[in-house]
Design goal:
The protein is α/β, with parallel strands linked by helices. Helix content is 38%, strand content 13%. Strand 3, helix 7 and strand 4 form a beta-alpha-beta unit.
Length: 380
């Protein structure tokens, strides 16, 4: 069956930012660190950073060339010159390795699921599948803090991107602020995705004190009726009140905060409009985006398709569920492809393990059909 692929590296349907996208400013910054990097290019770290610098300074197009997107540009403006090489090392591997099929020793990004439980039932989300949410299925739970510590301890110094989000709503975990403070200062691209319904004043202060890099508010509409239809059990006025209060707290108590805030929606209905979203949210957040819709709500019910291109996630990131299971993607939300558990084996070992390598090999050789749900998925 022919289907439209979901290209992860180009998943934004539209993106608007208060920050002016100015690649020349980044070129000036990388020139300042270029000589030091080239002097030490013999190291693996410096080789990767030097490759990123060369691509930034030579903007001619190439399929495997590293180029900063507007949202990555915004991230880099929050990174000091002293930390710039670290950021480029992360971002180059995150963007380019999935296209060149290079596997590093540790995933460039890990997504840590602090809970699989959610208070919403969005129409485009796997939370509507009772195979996931029914209590007797064993998929619902909260990550214990000691397990979170173990995951963060292993990731520190090995990757820069840690996202607290996956199948559930992170703010449903009462330890979230404690977890964010444990992460403080350890990563350059830390992120939380939330529906903002549970964003209390106390949690707002906790997030802002933690030094988090990016806070994404998942919201898909600018009017109450459409919002309720898409984000079932949600209330737009509650979300608006919480995000407005967060902005006020940030401006009053944390004026030097480098946190980027974004409202991001799934483009799943023709009634959704960037113009109406901008009119509502532009004064409250730094960025507004729509991501393309992918049938996340039930991958396993999709018909088999003829997509042969490899899944980019296999070289870009991995997922650590609340109970320690490591999964190659969250499209496989029932963990049929799980490669092991961090309670028994390290993330690094699992990332390079036989089952993970077998999955990459089959994808690389255009044989996604060997795995379910890969043969039903359109993510590339």
């Amino acid at each position: 069956m022919a289907v439209k692929a979901y290209e992860k590296r180009d998943s934004f349907d539209s993106f608007r930012s208060k920050q002016v996208f100015d690649p020349s400013a980044i070129r000036e910054r990388v020139k300042r660190i270029e000589s030091g990097i080239l002097r030490g290019e013999g190291s693996y770290f410096n080789k990767i950073v030097a490759a990123a610098i060369r691509d930034i300074l030579d903007p001619s197009p190439s399929p495997a060339k590293f180029a900063l997107s507007p949202h990555a540009f915004n991230e880099i403006t929050r990174v000091s010159d002293e930390m710039l090489s670290r950021y480029l090392f992360y971002r180059y591997r995150y963007d380019v390795f999935p296209r060149t099929f290079q596997k590093d020793d540790f995933p460039p990004c890990i997504q840590v699921e602090v809970t699989s439980i959610c208070n919403y039932r969005c129409v485009f989300c796997y939370q509507i599948d009772t195979s996931l949410t029914a209590r007797d299925q064993g998929h619902m739970g909260m990550m214990p803090f000691p397990l979170f510590q173990r995951v963060i301890d292993e990731a520190e110094g090995k990757c820069e991107a840690v996202t607290l989000a996956s199948r559930g709503e992170p703010l449903a975990n009462n330890n979230l602020v404690k977890m964010l403070h444990y992460m403080k200062g350890k990563f350059l691209a830390s992120k939380v995705n939330t529906n903002a319904s549970l964003l209390t004043e106390e949690v707002a202060h906790g997030i802002l004190e933690s030094g988090l890099s990016i806070l994404v508010f998942s919201c898909d509409a600018a009017d109450e009726k459409l919002y309720r239809q898409l984000r079932v059990r949600g209330d737009l006025q509650t979300v608006l009140k919480n995000i407005r209060r967060f902005k006020d707290i940030k401006e009053k108590y944390y004026p030097d905060s480098r946190l980027i805030t974004r409202v991001s929606g799934v483009k799943a209905d023709p009634r959704q409009s960037m113009e109406t979203m901008s009119s509502l949210w532009s004064e409250l957040v730094d960025e507004i985006a729509f991501v393309n819709y992918n049938p996340w709500e039930n991958t396993y019910a999709q018909p088999e398709n003829n997509e042969e291109r490899p899944c980019s996630d296999l070289w870009r990131r991995c997922f650590v569920w609340w109970d320690g299971r490591v999964n190659p993607c969250d499209t496989d939300y029932l963990s049929k492809l799980s490669v092991g558990n961090v309670n028994q084996t390290s993330i690094q070992e699992l990332w390079g393990s036989g089952p993970y390598q077998e999955l990459r090999t089959h994808h690389f050789h255009k044989d996604r059909r060997h795995f379910d749900p890969c043969k039903r998925c359109v993510l590339v």
